[in-house]
Amino acid sequence: MEKKIKDEVIICDKQHVHPYSVEETRAEMPDEEELFSLAEAFKIFGDSTRIRIICALMHKELCVCDLAELLNMGQSAISHQLRLLRTSRLVKTRREGKSIFYSLDDEHIELIINAGLAHIREE
Amino acid sequence: MEKKIKDEVIICDKQHVHPYSVEETRAEMPDEEELFSLAEAFKIFGDSTRIRIICALMHKELCVCDLAELLNMGQSAISHQLRLLRTSRLVKTRREGKSIFYSLDDEHIELIINAGLAHIREE
DNA sequence: TTAACATATGAATAGATGTTCATATAATAA
DNA sequence: TTATTATATGAACATCTATTCATATGTTAA
């Protein structure tokens, strides 16, 4: 049997709020620091150049100018984005002569991408 | 038995590239339009205010001023972000008197959030 | 060594984005 | 009706971000 709680109150001169809901939700949420990191992580995926790089590397390792050619963009732009991906530990590098090959460095990346694809492909 | 292909070539006065890798990868990638939508979708998750709203609504529906109170932010800022989430079909609304209650409107959202959490919690 | 190639990076710039402020709309209570 | 409460929204502003340009670093070949 569920109890019904009247969750409504007037606080000072402020707006009506539902303090029980608010406090209950606050207790259930991940802490601020974690939510901030989560947003920062999604920010990395929230750019089409980086998404294209990531999806390309899901297939096979590629060097910088391969990616520039593939995405039809300048080498510098690609290189700047790769630095971000490297800093975020999403890609790793391997040198072979003058070329530097990039590949994915995280098993969760494909999970995230696939969850995102499932999301945009529905409805 | 795998064939080894020498995937290296000089194109005009341009850089060295690995044309076989590039063409193979191009063929395997989702189309441009889909990758653009994917980036747009992740962009929504790439802001800590919106992530906090989404995580709050994962627990239970809340009205605008509940969210403002919970996140310690102005009503207008919350309302603007809710509009974005509404436009992106991530939340739905229900009116009850003067309050408008927001809740999640997509079964994939929790998948994406959980994939993201798994990602930031490792290493 | 010098030349050519591959990548990285700092600075500048243009465009996108989040919050605030003021105000509008909508529902309810008096 | 008018006043109050809840939400929505346009405009302004400051901040952030992605690309370009110029150049530096590092590797290989001649």
Q: In words, what does this structure look like?
A:
The structure is a homodimer of 123-residue chains. With 123 residues, the first copy, chain A, is of the alpha+beta class. Chain A has a single domain (2-121), classed as Arc Repressor Mutant, subunit A, CATH 1.10.10. Chain A contains 6 helices and 5 strands, in the order E-E-H-H-H-E-H-H-E-E-H. In chain A, the strands form 2 sheets. A 3-stranded antiparallel sheet of chain A has the order 3-5-4. A two-stranded antiparallel ribbon of chain A has the order 1-2. In chain A, a hairpin with a 5-residue loop joins strand 1 and strand 2 (16-17). In chain A, helix 4 packs across helix 5 (75-87). Chain A is elongated, with a radius of gyration of 22 Å. Chain A starts with 8 loop residues before the first strand and ends with a helix. Mean pLDDT of chain A is 89; it is low at 1-6 and 8-14. Chains A and B meet through strand 2, helix 1, helix 2, helix 3 and strand 3 of A and strand 2, helix 1, helix 2, helix 3 and strand 3 of B. Chain A binds a DNA duplex (30 and 30 nucleotides) through residues 15-16, 47, 49, 63-65, 73-83, 95, 97-100.
Briefly characterize the structure.
Helix content of chain A is 58%, strand content 15%.
